[in-house]
Amino acid sequence: MERARRRWWAELAWLGGAREVVDERVLISTERDRVVAVEPGSDPPPDARRLRGLLLPGLANTHSHAFHRALRSRTQAGAGDFWSWRERMYALAGRIDPDAYLALARATYAEMALAGVAAVGEFHYLHHPPGGGRYADPNAMGSALLQAAAEAGVRITLLDTCYLQADADGTPLEGVQRRFGDGDAAAWAERVERLAPAAATADGALLGAAVHSVRAVPPGAMAAVAAWAARRGAPLHLHLSEQRRENQACLAATGRTPARLAADCGVLGERTTVVHATHPGGGDVELLGASGTTACLCPTTERDLADGIGPARRLAEAGCPLALGSDSHAVVDLFEEARAVELDERLASGRRGHHRSVDLLRAATGGGMRSLGWDAGAIEPGRLADLVSLRLDSPRLAGAPREDLLAAVVFAATAADVADLVVGGRQVVADGQHLLVEDVSAALAQAISPLSDPG
Ligand SMILES: [Zn+2]
Fold first, then answer.
1. What's the gap in Å between 359 CA and the centre of ligand 1?
2. CA separation (Å) from 442 to 80, 103, 110, 401?
3. Residue numbers annotated as active site
4. Which of 1, 29, 63, 195 is most buried, by the most CB atoms less than 10 A from its CB?
5. Residue 79 in this model has a pLDDT that exceeds 90
6. What does the DSSP assignment read for 347-398?
7. Residue 28 C-alpha to ligand 1 middle, in angstroms?
8. How far is the CA of 338 from the centre of ligand 1 (A)?
9. Given this model, what pLDDT does residue 405 score?
10. Mean pLDDT confidence for 224-240
């Protein structure tokens, strides 16, 4: 990869991290994949690449299931709830092999790059052939995801997911769910260990762990996955309290809320991210906050699936860093996720102003990067050189007030406003064009069409 010393210049930049304001005329020097200097108030030197509009740290899409991209526009209309949607998702899951997965994930990650995403957290549980058994390479599906991200120019944290049972009462996996299961936590760890060398040598890849949910992993196995992640210092994610039914099933099976059970199994902590946290039970918000666990909200998916509105403000106040994910990819737009966190809480509470714009952008950048184990999310010397620029002359942002550009970005920008993306010092998107995947729309259409639901 071409990663020499480079200089980049932007008229306006929010540098992320602790910065509260937009800096002007910012010169950024990078060497290989890192930022080495940041100099606001600089004239653009002739050798610097100009990035148009407003520069931000590259975005983190903290929660993704790449294969769900093939459900877009097929499951949004009509009636039902999360559980009826899941049946459609399972039907798709039964049709994907490693080659189809590579094509679909590569196109999906390329769509993310066009939306300004520098790193994705892929919550990966589609491990084995339909009906069970093993591929010749038992990590054929995970390897396809690593390759897809590399080809799309996006960094990936592959959150290899343990998924062992159909419900908290120990109901065995059946039907397409058998693709997800390794049998037990030891077999899960053995398979993941075989993936570790490939992930370690891949450029821009990191291996993490996930517990699918308290429904899908019994307490002893949750503790084993948590211990594996702790030994490796790896990120650990789990779906938590997305549905009230999960809380009820967990209480019935264990006498504890999902968060309490996760805490007792050693799952919570500063390396851990809970996804959704839409329906935390009594005391759960305080438990999550005190442990420093990140809460990853996925509001465009949560609203699509009629999940509910999570208590983002209370979670943040309790001490949970926030992160954002497009999850089912009903849309891939981190600006939409960011504003939905605030706007959904307005609808639920009848009050405005739960989150500051700068904090929502932190969730989309530094909060997510930290959750995924990357030293990124702020444009600072020493950190990974991830830069995204937004056109300020788009119809959405034209006329935005200079003194409150961050609010304009949160409340009006869309993924379509992304002009340039630099990931680890390498330009991946220039002027709205992906430089590695020639025609992202065609790649998506070609990958999705053979997977379409025949019924
Ligand atoms: Zn998910």
1. 23
2. 31, 11, 11, 37
3. 276, 327
4. 63
5. no
6. HHHS---SS-HHHHHHIIIIIHHHHHT-S-SB--TTSB--EEEE-SSSTTTT
7. 35
8. 17
9. 97
10. 98
pLDDT digits over 118-165, tens only? 999 999 999 999 877 899 999 999 999 999 999 999 999 999 999 999
| b/e map 350-381, b = 16+ CB within 10 Å | eeeebbebbbbbbbbbbbbbbbbbbebbbbbe
Structure letter (DSSP) for residue 175: G
Ligand 1 centroid to Cα of residue 65, in Å, is 6
Asked if 250 and 277 count as a contact pair (C-beta separation under 8 A), the reply is no
Measured in angstroms, how far is the CA atom of residue 272 from the centroid of ligand 1?
A: 15
Determine which helix (DSSP H) or strand (DSSP E) holds 324, and give its type and residue range: strand 322-324
By CB atoms closer than 10 A (0-12, 13-18, 19+), residue 60 is: buried
- Give the residue from 148, 162, 135 showing the smallest Cα distance to 222: 162
User: Region 177-199: what's the mean pLDDT?
Assistant: 95
Do the Cβ atoms of 183 and 224 come closer than 8 Å? Answer: no
- Around Cβ 222, how many Cβ atoms within 10 Å? 25
Rounded to an integer, what distance in angstroms lies between the CA atom of residue 416 and that of residue 403? 23
Between the CA of 246 and the centroid of ligand 1 the distance, in Å, is 14
The DSSP 8-state label assigned to residue 270 in this structure reads T
The total of other beta-carbon atoms located within 10 Å of residue 31's CB is: 14
**Rounded distance between C-alpha atoms, residue 257 and residue 248, angstroms:** 8
- According to DSSP, residue 437 is labeled S
The predicted structure's pLDDT at residue 84? 80
Averaged pLDDT of the chain: 95
pLDDT for 132 equals 77
Contact assessment for residue 278 and residue 302, using Cβ atoms and an 8 Å cutoff: yes
